[in-house]
Amino acid sequence: MTPTALDLGAIPPGFSGTAFFLVRNNAQVELAIGQAAGVDALDAPFSFDADTCSGQVLAPFASCAITIAFSPLTEAEFLDTFDLPSNDPEEPTISLTVSGRSTDVPSDLDIRSAWDFGEQPLNSETTYSFRAINLGTGILVFGDIGVADPVEPPFEIVDETCSNSGVLPLEECSITVVYAPVSGTEHMDSFEVSSNDPLEPVVTVQLAGKVAQGEIEFSPLVPFGEIPVGGGRGVGIGVRNVGGGFLEIGNLGATDPLEPPFEVNIDECSGQTLPPNAGDDSTCRLNMAFTPSAVGEFEDTLSIPSSDPDRPNATLTVTGAGVAPSIKTPPLLLFGLQPPGSETTKTVRVGNDGNAPLEIGTVSSVGPAFAVVTDDCSNSSVLPQTTCVMEIAFSPGAAGIFRGRIDIPSNDPVTPTARFFTLGRGAPSE
């Protein structure tokens, strides 16, 4: 029999504690057990909580247990006995002793006094469970949790096992709080935990949380490069939300729109709300065009407003250059006096003074006595600041003054067909 005396310790009035006797048959034969407390009854505040021994026959080396409950109502020390009969020839009846005391014993509440939920997106929720641990030597008795100082939305106590309970030493209960913001930016609240902890009967637990904000990200500079005058180019970029909360995009260019030769031609961002951590769904697309109508360097900015608290009105810069060829020819080609029936030639250089390739078409000659006899220019591309060469022949058929013209078509936006004149004279006969 182990033990024969059982101390159930200190129990506050109105609460209960249990402990058990272990009965073991150490003999090689069966042990028949009679009714516990059949002669010596067990009185309150003690009682039988469970009994697997009375009336049982234990096989050799088998065991059973008798669990005693101690439920005092007043402060005092208590002692009682009860009998346990069996067919043990050496000790047919044993007396078992139970004791306990009822007093308000020390309890010690250990609970986190604050919790910051950190950043949480709107219309989502996160939870935290507070562990209330009894580090004392007596039962820790709780009052109603969160009644004297209830929490308000977006905080809520959704589950707890502490209210009006008694927690034994080194055991615990829990209080689960949810943070589910639907508006605002920062939130704070608190609730009270009351207990019979003599040193800290009321613990105020602080709660804090912040609404996660969206964070805008995009390439701050879009260079279109060199675009021929009259041409155009489109460039698309993604506007992303890389923050932990939702990002609301305002109307692009509301305070600083793009001006020609730039324009926004596809806008999938204005008025959109980009969710956090959603891959492609966290990105909207923006396409811009650059269509220069003149030669020169161009730069502009576009405002992109959003709910990003650090960049509420972010700026996108666009740059580009309008380029064009510029054809250069002599204004007049003079051949002077030439005998009839003879031929003379002059070399002409056609230059490109622009900043884009000069695309030349088929060169033609207009007027009698003049002809293009060597032509490296027709249907060629002349790079900026370079030239091509052609030879013009003059063959007068008679005496007199001859006038002609050379036409050079190209992609020069200012002079799509450049012309220069030819002039020569046929010498009179002697």
Task: Describe, in plain words, how this protein is organized in 3D.
The chain is an all-beta fold. The chain folds into four domains: 5-102, Sandwich (Immunoglobulin-like), CATH 2.60.40.10; 109-211, Immunoglobulin-like; 216-323, Immunoglobulin-like, CATH 2.60.40.10; 327-426, Immunoglobulins (Immunoglobulin-like, Sandwich). Helix content is 0%, strand content 52%. The chain is built from no helices and 36 strands. It has strands at 5-11, 17-24, 31-32, 46-51, 57-58, 63-70, 76-85, 93-102, 109-110, 114-120, 126-134, 140-141, 155-160, 166-167, 172-179, 186-194, 202-211, 216-217, 221-228, 233-241, 247-248, 262-267, 273-274, 283-290, 296-305, 313-323, 327-328, 332-338, 344-352, 358-359, 364-366, 370-375, 381-382, 387-394, 400-409, 417-426. The protein has a four-stranded antiparallel beta sheet with strand order 9-11-15-13, with no helix packed on it. A four-stranded antiparallel beta sheet has the order 18-20-24-22, with no helix packed on it. β35 and β36 form a beta hairpin. The termini are far apart. The mean pLDDT is 92.
